[in-house]
Design brief:
With 725 residues, the chain is mainly β. The protein is 10% helix and 38% strand. It is built from 8 helices and 44 strands. The strands form 10 sheets. The protein has an 8-stranded mixed β-sheet. Strands 16-22-23-24-21-17 form a 6-stranded mixed β-sheet. A hairpin with a 7-residue loop joins strand 36 and strand 37. The N and C termini lie far apart (124 Å). 39% of the residues are buried. Mean pLDDT is 85; it is low at 1-38 and 270-280.
């Protein structure tokens, strides 16, 4: 190993032939590169996934693709935002607070080519498609020597005070929303791509050696590796052990060797072996019990999201020793098991050692070289070198033959869900409250979802003055169930259960589902949907495609929307109304008659916020129109017209007698429009009126609207035929 190589070289440099080896090494080998000091440790598995923020923390050098924790190198304080909702007549307002932070995380002490997935507290923050699951702005600095200062850090710290961190790859999060992480900066780990392809052990050693190490012969391939530890020497020692490599001087550099072709054959002499009994050929074989019977190799497994995997290799025979090898590299399970088996085989082969005595002219056979010994099978590595009385003694250890690839399984994988977020889809409409409450101010209901199943929330802004001022309204509710009509429900009556009509709807994505409901569930309000402008209920939902559903057994024109029956067109909106997904936006009375503009911005809205508008006609605060208008002839030419009022809070008709009034008083505005153009207006406090025959000589239309505390209902109409005497 490296320690043996350099200790022998150190002695040789002071001997009679020091000039020969001195010329070979050129005096440029740094002792700290290849000789690990006592007490200094190499990279450990657990350390790479721990995010830190301490001064002096070693920063890993990432090769290949690796999951690392990084070090927070800059951050702002928590940024507090608040949104106020409610506060209508007789109702308290509610203020909600949200927090965000901006910070930078150093990822690698050498340039990288990119970042893949990002985990926050073990859950995916950024998916494999590059989509973020939580709202944030993100910038990646690749670590080039010409990279510019990050604009956010420069703005916060001042011109000339913000470093560019050249040579260090780092990521900047701007306004990361912290609600999902307990209002604190989460522990982040990153899938860092240091090189566009897998790398070899030798290539990593050469990069770390700063031009003093040739790693061409070490061809063991790794998916990724993060050089992390107290010194370069400790990292190289870790690479060499797992890769079955060692170091040897070669001119002005040190060569990393691994199972290469022997440089020459040497004759077997007789000398004292390195430990053990003496044989006539200078051979010593250690007892089988002195080497490991089992090797357990731990590693980062890409198939397990770079979590730690374990692979075990065992040999038959005597012994109880078990070796644990930590190899902080990204390799698959099969490669890890093959490496464990190779370590086991090398240990068993190294039981046999030989000491060969040669003439002084064999000095070019340096420590670290591979040789064959005349009359002895196998390939041997020179581990020691001494010259005494012009006799060169070489200590040799047997090399194991190559290990064939071994198949292995990584075990059960519990990966963090990586579902596409998608863009925000927004539905907003004015409607009576779905809990039968009586509102004192207009309400807009907002339901939002995403085109991907990973969508969670979107920030909401609204304006009631044509965009002159915008008010933050927090975030949307839970993802709703939205879609578009693939066929229309058609005309029907609102007074009876519609078993003839059916329609089809395409939901936003296949993960959205609908369910059938029995009579009890329907009575409790299940399966209420806004279809175009009509509210209806469906009892039966059948999936007929990945995202297409057929709905039938319908209750039409619910909650006063009978005028919208049959008005739908292909592509109209479908919104399932559910308490958990409906966000109530209560507006001041002054907003009545205006148009409210709404913006929603989610993490997948790369093209900017999604916008919609709602005209506030007062539908949410006025009573529904009267129904069952009946005209009855009185025999004198006069006609009696009666109707049934409805209420804003009596939709379920609990007592079976009459709906509660829901208004300050009962009153109706009645407009009689004669066919000759004459118009007469009446106000009544009872649900009936008598129209004199003189007002219907040529025929007339009677319009009735209920007067509520905050406005009038839509008209209900009945035609009055002309009086013929």
């Amino acid at each position: 190993m490296a320690t043996l190589v350099l200790s022998v070289v150190g002695r040789a440099l002071g001997g009679p032939i020091g000039a020969i080896l001195g010329a070979a090494l050129g005096g440029v080998v740094d002792r700290d590169v290849l000789l690990r000091p006592k007490g200094v440790e190499g990279p450990r598995l657990a350390a790479l996934h721990v995010q830190t923020s301490n001064y002096g923390t070693p920063l890993q050098l990432v090769f290949g693709t690796m999951r690392v924790g990084g070090c927070v190198i800059w951050s702002t304080d928590l940024i507090e935002s608040k949104a106020t909702s409610g506060g209508g007549k007789g109702q308290p307002s509610a203020t909600t607070y949200s927090y965000s932070a901006s910070f930078a995380v150093a990822l690698s002490g050498r340039p990288i080519v990119g970042v893949g997935r990002i985990w926050a507290d073990g859950n995916l923050l950024r998916g494999s498609a590059g989509d973020f699951k939580t709202a944030t702005a993100f910038r990646l600095h690749l670590g080039g020597e010409d990279q510019a200062v990050d604009p956010l850090i420069a703005a916060a710290e001042g011109a000339g005070l913000a470093p560019a961190h050249r040579g260090i790859a780092y990521a900047v999060f701007e306004s990361l929303q912290l609600a999902d992480y307990g209002n604190r900066i989460p522990s982040l780990t990153f899938e860092v791509i240091g090189d566009p392809a897998p790398v070899t052990v030798g290539a990593i050693a050469a990069a770390l050696g700063g031009g003093m190490v040739d790693g061409t012969a070490a061809t063991q391939t790794l998916g990724g590796f993060a050089a992390y530890g107290d010194s370069v020497a400790s990292v190289l020692d870790t690479l060499a052990r797992a890769g079955g490599a060692w170091f040897a001087p070669d001119g002005a550099i040190v060569r990393m060797r691994a199972g290469e072709t022997p440089v020459q054959e040497i004759a077997a002499g007789e000398a004292s072996p390195v430990g053990g009994p003496v044989s006539k050929h200078g051979r010593a074989v250690a007892a089988l019990e002195t080497v490991a019977r089992q090797v357990t190799l731990s590693h980062y497994d890409p198939a397990r999201e770079y979590q730690i995997g374990l692979q075990v290799a065992r040999r038959p025979g005597a012994g109880r020793r078990e070796d644990q090898v930590e190899f902080p590299a990204a390799i698959d399970a099969g490669t890890a098991k093959t490496l464990a088996a190779a370590i086991l085989a090398r240990g068993e082969a190294a039981r046999e050692r030989r000491t060969v005595a040669l003439g002084w002219d064999a000095v070019p056979v340096a420590p670290g070289a591979c040789v064959t010994i005349a009359g002895v099978a196998g390939i041997w590595r020179v581990t020691g070198w001494s010259l005494e009385h012009m006799v060169l003694s070489l200590d040799c250890v047997r090399l194991a033959s190559g290990t064939l690839p071994i198949a292995a399984t990584p075990g059960r994988v519990l990966a963090a869900p990586d579902v596409a977020t998608g863009a925000t889809v927004l539905a907003a409409f004015e409607s009576l409250p779905f809990d039968d409450a009586v509102l004192a101010a207009p309400r807009v209901t907002i339901v939002a979802a995403g085109t991907g199943p990973g969508w969670r929330r979107a920030a909401v802004l609204y304006s009631i003055d044509e965009g002159a001022r915008w008010t933050a309204f927090g975030a949307t509710a839970a993802p709703g169930t939205l879609g578009r009509l693939a066929s229309v429900p058609g005309p029907a009556a609102s007074a009876i259960f519609d078993r003839r009509r059916a329609f089809k709807v395409d939901l936003l994505h296949p993960a959205m589902t609908l369910e059938s409901a029995d009579a009890g569930a329907l009575d409790a309000g299940a399966n209420l949907a806004l279809v175009g402008d009509e509210l209806l209920q469906f009892a039966t939902a059948i999936q007929i495609g990945p995202a297409r559903w057929r709905l039938y057994d319908l209750t039409r024109g619910c909650r006063g929307t009978e005028s919208a029956i049959g008005t739908q067109a292909l592509g109209d909106r479908f919104v399932l109304i559910a308490a958990e997904s409906a966000l109530a936006l209560d507006l001041p009375l002054a907003a009545l008659g205006r148009t409210v503009q709404i913006l929603a911005s989610g993490v997948g809205d790369a093209d900017g916020p999604v916008a919609t508008t709602v005209a506030l006609r007062g539908r949410s605060v006025v009573p529904p129109s009267p129904v069952q208008l009946v005209a009855r002839e009185l025999g004198t030419g006069d006609v009696a017209v009666s109707w049934v009022r409805r209420s804003r809070n009596g939709w379920r008709w609990i007592d079976g007698v009459d709906a509660p009034l829901g208004e300050e008083r009962e009153a109706y505005r009645i407009v009689l429009e004669a066919l000759d153009g004459g118009v007469r207006t009446f106000v009544r406090d009872v649900p009936n009126i008598v129209v004199a025959r003189g007002d219907r000589v040529l025929g007339a239309v009677l319009r009735v609207a209920q007067i509520g505390a905050l406005g009038e209902s839509d008209d209900a109409t009945v035609g009055l035929p002309a009086w013929i005497s």
